[in-house]
Amino acid sequence: MPAVSTRSTKIAKKSSFYLGMILLLCFCLFPFFIMLMTAFKSSEEAISTNPTFLPKEWTIQHFLDIFNPGIFPYLTYLENSFIVSMTASVISVGIAIFGAYALSRLNFKGRITINASFYTVYMFSGILLVVPLFKIISGLGLYDTKTSLIIVMIVQTLPTAILMLNSFFETIPKDLEEAAKIDGLNRVKVIFYIIIPLSFAGIVSVFVYCFMVAWNDFLFASIFFSGAENFTLPVGLYALFSTPDYVWGRMMAASIVTALPVVIMYAISESLIKGNVTDGGVKG
Amino acid sequence: MFKGKRETSDGKFALMLLFPSIFLIVMLIGYPMLSNFYISFFEQPINPNLAAKFIGFENYIETLRDIEFYKSLGITLLYTLLVVIGSTLLGLYVAILFNRPFRFRKIARSLIILSYVTPSISLVFAWKYMFNNGYGVINYIGRDILHLFERPPLWFDDPTSSFILVVLFAIWRYFPYAFIAFLAILQTISPVLYEAAEMDGANIWQKFKAVTLPAIMPVMLTIITLRTIWMFYMFEDVYLLTNKVNVLGIYLYETAFAFNDLGKASAISVLLFLIICTLIILIRKRVNLNASS
Fold first, then answer.
1. Is the dihedral of CA B35, B39, B45, B46 positive or negative?
2. DSSP type of residue A229
3. Angle, CA of A230, A231 and A233, to the nearest 5°
4. What are the 10-residue block averages of pLDDT along chain B, 293 residues in total?
5. Average pLDDT in the A2-24 region?
């Protein structure tokens, strides 16, 4: 039997744990708190040399401003970001489902090699490819088009999407597939009727990953676009706020609205994955 | 006989399913990686219609003679080292903290991940505002409330304080990745092992060394390797936060798109690739040695 701890040490232990947790959450969330509060402050209050944590007067003017095309082309950027991220993620996930199925279920020569090369590719990308991709995109006549960013985002997310889906597919029992085949489903139908529905939560989380990468990308968007009409949110905001007349409240409002879609999607995909290792194992 | 037939059809079917993935990856990752080598031997004129001039190793010599390259390399290595250590340890610590049931566990976990999913641009604005010299809340807390400093550093205008900020930002932003990975693996460790160690009279540290560490080692190795690669190639977080910390990603980016020297930028890419390969081999060796000793 382990030593019996007294009631008071138990309470002390518990409260120090919760205190640590609160400190940790403060560390993690403080910038978000400041972002949120500043978005609701008046412009004068935001640049007061005696900063306050809460707005003295709450205003939603900054949120109205960013959605007012006369002041700010935020809606154009938002739309561009949506088009690019949505198209790239749908295509990437679509292609990855078939690739991952082949890698996780089929026996063929070179399977291990292909798997290993996807791993390698997953590790080396981004800034290393900036120059040649820029040349390829210019060569194809796609410079300053959304298509350029969509294509590059598909490829930037594809290796990870395949590897993630591969590990989700591995968890689906092979017997189910065999049974379906005996019932007369061919392999293509197996993918659509068995694999995709059973790994739905996994597919959603891969989709969210792809969307997040495309939504957050600044590097490629900054070199592929020259005209503001194609700007996605990160480049658009960066270009706009590089001007000397900052309006902090507006910047914070824009930051929040820019972060919201990915945060919401992430929360949804988290709640879909029930009983995975991260949430379930505690009981054991 | 039956098996043989099945394997050939598998091969064709697999090729069909994998073709789009392989095609895209070869064309837009494999080919560009190789074309870096090719481009690096040429001087690329700013006008894309003019022909590139073959100049051999000139771009490499120019880069290796550039004092800025070495400064940048030093900064990048230090940045990578600090962020990898900081984010891995913090992630591990928080995962251990979370590896027990408590109220609000799920919501706390989601809140911690927030910095990892939010776009850099949003986070950068918040940090720039918080660390602003005139009305930033950090100066206010540090100087007026806690009296930590008399004259606050000019956060984004001074190379040292900018460097500290950039490292802090990256640790804050990326530790959740390590946290999630560690938490997942910690939850697979059977409590029986800890009980057994306790019976043998192990203290907390001994339990960690004997039970936790061996179990999390493979995950730790992966996290360290991947984080090293990602930090070494970092561009946007640093670029968006400050212009005082010239990491290699920025050095490359500016060579390519501010000075329009694509040939030299390709040479830099090749050099970065070689450096990161060496680093990875070193990390793997070092950690393996530790594990076996």
1. positive
2. G
3. 140
4. 51 90 93 92 79 88 95 97 97 93 88 94 94 86 84 87 96 96 93 88 88 92 92 95 94 94 95 92 71 41
5. 82
Q: At what angle do helices A7-39 and B120-130 cross, to 10 degrees?
A: 90
Helices (H), A140-247: 146-170, 174-182, 187-190, 196-198, 200-216, 219-224, 233-241
Spatial CB neighbours of B108, under 8 Å, sequence gap ≥ 6: A21, A25, B98
Q: How far apart are CA A33 and CA A1, in angstroms?
A: 46
**Helix (H/G/I), strand (E/B), else coil: B53:** strand
Question: Please, which residues bridge with residue B53 across strands?
Answer: B43
Residues in B closer than 8 angstroms to A101, CB to CB, are 17
Chain A residues in contact with B253 by the CB 8 A cut-off are: 127, 130, 219
Q: What is the complex's ipTM, to 2 decimals? A: 0.90
Q: Which residue of A has its CA nearest to B168?
A: A27
> From B191, which residue of chain A is nearest by alpha-carbon distance?
A284
Q: Sign (positive/negative) of CA torsion A182, A187, A193, A199?
A: positive
Q: Which residue has the higher pLDDT, A280 or A252?
A: A252
pLDDT reported for residue B151: 82
Q: How far off is chain B from A70, nearest CA to CA, in Å? A: 22
B127-133, long-range: CB within 8 Å, 24+ apart, which pairs? B127/A31, B127/B165, B127/B169, B127/B241, B128/B156, B128/B241, B129/A34, B129/A35, B129/A38, B129/A248, B129/A251, B129/A252, B130/A30, B130/A31, B130/A34, B131/B155, B131/B156, B131/B165, B133/B157
Residue type, B124: V
Exposed/middle/buried for A77, CB within 10 Å: 0-12, 13-18, 19+? buried
A contact test, residue of B7, B122, B168, B207 with most A CBs within 10 A: B122
Question: Chain A window 230-269: which residues touch B at a Cβ cutoff of 8 Å?
Answer: 233-234, 237-238, 241, 248, 251-252, 254-256, 258-259, 262-263, 266-267
Which chain B residues are closer than 8 Å to A141 by Cβ? Answer: none
Residue B117's pLDDT is 93
What's the confidence (pLDDT) of residue A279?
A: 35
Q: Does A69 touch chain B (CB under 8 A)?
A: no
DSSP code for B42: E
A-chain residues within 8 Å CB-CB of B130? 30-31, 34
To the nearest whole Å, the CA of A167 is away from the closest chain B CA by 15
Q: What is d(CA A281, CA B131) in angstroms, rounded to the nearest whole number?
A: 40
pLDDT tens-place string over residues A57-98: 899 999 998 998 888 899 999 999 999 999 999 999 999 999
Q: Indicate the DSSP class of residue B240.
A: H
Which chain B residue has the Cα nearest residue A153?
B28
Per-residue confidence (pLDDT) for residue B3, from 0 to 100:
45
**CA triplet B146, B151, B154: central angle to 5 degrees?**
110
Q: What angle do CA A174, A93, B253 make, to 5 degrees?
A: 135
The one-character DSSP state at A231 is: -
